[in-house]
Amino acid sequence: MKTLEELQEIAIETIRQEQFLHSPYTLYEPIHYTMEQEGKRIRPLLTLLASELFEGNIENAKPSALAIETAHNFTLLHDDIMDASPLRRGKETVYKKYGTDKAILSGDTMLAIAYQYLLRSPKALIAELMECFTKGMIDVFAGQAYDMEFEQRNDVRIEEYIDMISLKTGALLATSLQLGAITAQAKPQDIENLYEFGINIGIAFQLMDDILDCWSNFEEFGKVTGTDIADNKKTFLYLKSLEIASKEEKEVLLKYFSSTSFDPKEKEDAVKAIYHKLNLKQIAQELMQTYNAKAMDSLQKIGVNDKQKTNLINFANKLMHRNK
Amino acid sequence: MKTLEELQEIAIETIRQEQFLHSPYTLYEPIHYTMEQEGKRIRPLLTLLASELFEGNIENAKPSALAIETAHNFTLLHDDIMDASPLRRGKETVYKKYGTDKAILSGDTMLAIAYQYLLRSPKALIAELMECFTKGMIDVFAGQAYDMEFEQRNDVRIEEYIDMISLKTGALLATSLQLGAITAQAKPQDIENLYEFGINIGIAFQLMDDILDCWSNFEEFGKVTGTDIADNKKTFLYLKSLEIASKEEKEVLLKYFSSTSFDPKEKEDAVKAIYHKLNLKQIAQELMQTYNAKAMDSLQKIGVNDKQKTNLINFANKLMHRNK
What is this model's ipTM? Predict the structure, then answer.
């Protein structure tokens, strides 16, 4: 069985071998720019991990790995426009560097390229892979839509927030795993449990992102931190703090989250002081552990021997203890 | 054999039966808004026409018809952002009505929905339909990229313009036909000829669009006219006029197409006066006829009896004589 590190190297190398730079250059240069930034390649790694879990032929999983990483990067191109994010992985975002129009069109093209990658899969599996992948994308779009809706609402409940991130972040991680499992021709019940594992890991992953956005710094995180507070994002931290804050603290929070016109530094300091007093970091970490435990429960149910599951357990542990 | 009008009614009805309005509403309302505007449904009609041409089962073609119309409308949502178009089919464009972010995300979702429709096709055909559809979309994106590049360039050749519109407009019409032909399990050589028919019809269609943008009026056309001149679009009209204009006329054209800061009315009148003097409308109509004739040549080669081809011939004739 391949190690986690070996599989990550295969994921990185599989993507590295693809050529994105060709005409029309105004269309493909932003794609090349995005794809050559080697992030953690978490999603294609999950696809390969799922293939290994069910002892599939890794070559059959590579098209799905390529598809999911390309699709993930497509969502980043468009999300960065919507969120007006200037930086990603420590570099200029595509819309900042090339303009909104090119970020839209290059993103669109990346989604189609993702489908082209899926078409390289064994023919008998294509319809099932396409269905799984397309459902995953539609879930991600719904998640992004709810995320934007929540910015305008003042009555978001914590359960709604969890549902939103399970779509926005969980669905793509779960889909990455599902695609790999399909290529290994796993049993439907096992695929379902692996999907649940992915959703819960995704929720935990996003809670960690919220924590890092609040308490990490730019050098470590590779992107601007404190943006959730600046943008009035209704993250778990905010929603939970409203629930447990005193009347006075609640008023401060509601005031700062009602507008984006406050001095950003003043706002960040004031909100973080309340989060600190309310012990929000620890509360969020505990919730993250709860979802991690749910993920482990789902993994437990999958009908392969425990040794085969080691990689996924290690993967989940690394996610829980990352600093970027 | 069904008539052109019957098939158009089936195309319209097939789309009318779909429900787009559900949660998250911020995501699906723009999709509903777009899809309920019943345009000419040209692309799904072409899919059904291709199915009929090869005596296919029309039920098998309907998923492709839905996919291609949804994908076409997706491209409009994003193109209207890039072109900053306020109106489409006489109504506000999605980005004007709902904002850029929603137009991006709803557009993305429509592309995924198009793939979901394709997945309703007979299972044995799905991989081939997906491949054809995806290639068509990638061509369309390349066409849009070239179109935007040309706005920045002063040395666009007429052949480059034709190549661009064969991608931007031709590819989707040709793909519409190809999908229908695949569902009818037509012979590869016949599919190829039908594809060529589509590309050439597409070029003729776009030349007609250029003519209408210049010489039609808002009431007839349903969108703002004169935009190509206002936006310095290097259409055939402009490129050909540069080729045959006198030195003085050429200077006027180059001056007006070097900026968007001129008074729009003054610019439009000056450019149209030159087009008129150079007989550009007739020249463009003749070129349109040339591509129409090429399309007819390709149609001729297809191995079905002439009677079966009547609908497509009538369809092409209608396109050549439309006023919107």
Answer: 0.94
